[in-house]
Design goal:
Strand order of the largest sheet: 5-6-11-9-10
Largest sheet: 5 strands, antiparallel
Strand content: 25-35%
Structural class: alpha+beta
Shape: globular
Helix content: 10-25%
Number of helices: 7
Radius of gyration: 20 Å
Distance between the termini: 12 Å
Number of strands: 19
């Protein structure tokens, strides 16, 4: 998007962040971002955009067959996943090639192929924008749910994540049953975390556009969860509907719903639904924020009209 912020500030340590907060308290509005890969700016931002450049991956202890790694919020997420796999540690491999940075993983509770960040997060360190004080949140204190956390809800806009500690396994139990990972493996009974990472990267490269080459925010919509009763009614009408049983109902892939409504590959102005993955909206070049918003609203209306299901954006509108 061709939008601008009034000011952009990057910090490399917690001390530098705290110094900025103590000196710039009157500087509002203030928006903290990661790589910006899950944001849609609706226009120019009138305040300061703040970004973490805290790097580093360091051991933070061991617990049986698990190793803890403390990771700076500014580390590129896929670099971290590559690090864990190269050291034979399991837990993050299904999350390979997700755009963004480590800090955002703890805010968004990113997920793919049956795994979510909450499954491996041990604790999150963050600094309050109000007090400048540091607080460490345990996994339960983060109140994780599907693409949700306390940082997106009760504490939205109140903290900057500085470090995330992950719990990885030296004896990983591989998750191969979501999507078509297993079919990509020559021998699923003897595969490693490196094999799973290669399979996930291959699948994502086939289905998803590279954000460095074509503007997009990855999965634009969240997969809806419906009641068992509603699913049974829909499944009787659409027997080929894919689904996943979850604790609070049945999850239906939003991409499938959108594709059934005929949106795959369609465009509105310079905004379009991606030709290979209906869950992704793309900028064909020169799209305005309103173009993306209008397209997303039209897609949601179609799904509601045909299936009686409300799908919601995963992308954060600023």
């Amino acid at each position: 998007m061709d939008v601008r912020a009034r000011r952009f500030v990057e910090y490399e340590s917690e001390q530098e962040l705290c110094r900025f907060l103590s000196e710039e308290k009157a500087d509002t509005p203030l928006l903290h971002i990661g790589a910006g890969s899950n944001l849609l700016f609706q226009g120019d931002y009138p305040g300061t955009v703040l970004h973490s450049a805290i790097r580093g991956i360091e051991p933070a202890g061991e617990a049986g067959d698990n190793m803890l790694l403390r990771v700076g919020a500014g580390v590129v997420w896929d670099d971290f996943v590559g690090y864990t796999v190269s050291h034979g540690l399991g837990g993050a491999e299904n999350l390979s090639l997700i755009p963004g940075e480590v800090g955002a993983s703890a805010v968004q509770n990113i997920g793919a192929y049956g795994v979510e960040a909450k499954d491996i997060i041990e604790q999150v360190e963050a600094v309050s924008f109000v007090t400048g004080q540091k607080h460490t949140f345990s996994n339960p204190e983060c109140c994780y749910a599907y693409r949700q956390s306390i940082f997106k809800q009760q504490l939205r806009g109140q903290y900057a994540v500085t470090y995330v500690t992950y719990r990885l396994s030296r004896r990983p139990v591989l998750n191969l049953d979501y999507g078509n990972i297993r079919s990509r493996l020559a021998d699923s009974s003897a595969c490693t975390v490196a094999d799973v990472r290669r399979a996930v990267i291959s699948i994502r490269n086939e289905k998803l556009p590279d954000p460095d080459l074509q503007g997009n925010a990855g999965s634009f919509f969240m997969n809806p969860v419906v009641s068992r009763q509603q699913f049974d009614r829909l499944h009787a009408q659409y027997p080929d509907m894919p689904f996943y049983d979850v604790a609070d109902g049945v999850k239906i892939p939003a991409g499938w719903l959108i594709e059934q409504c005929g949106w795959k590959g369609r465009s509105m102005g310079r905004a379009a639904v991606h030709r290979n993955q209906a869950l992704v909206l793309v900028n064909l070049g020169g799209a305005k924020p309103d173009d993306i918003i209008s397209l997303s609203q039209a897609v949601c209306q179609s799904v509601r009209r045909q299936f009686g299901i409300d799908i919601r954006p995963e992308v954060n509108f600023i």
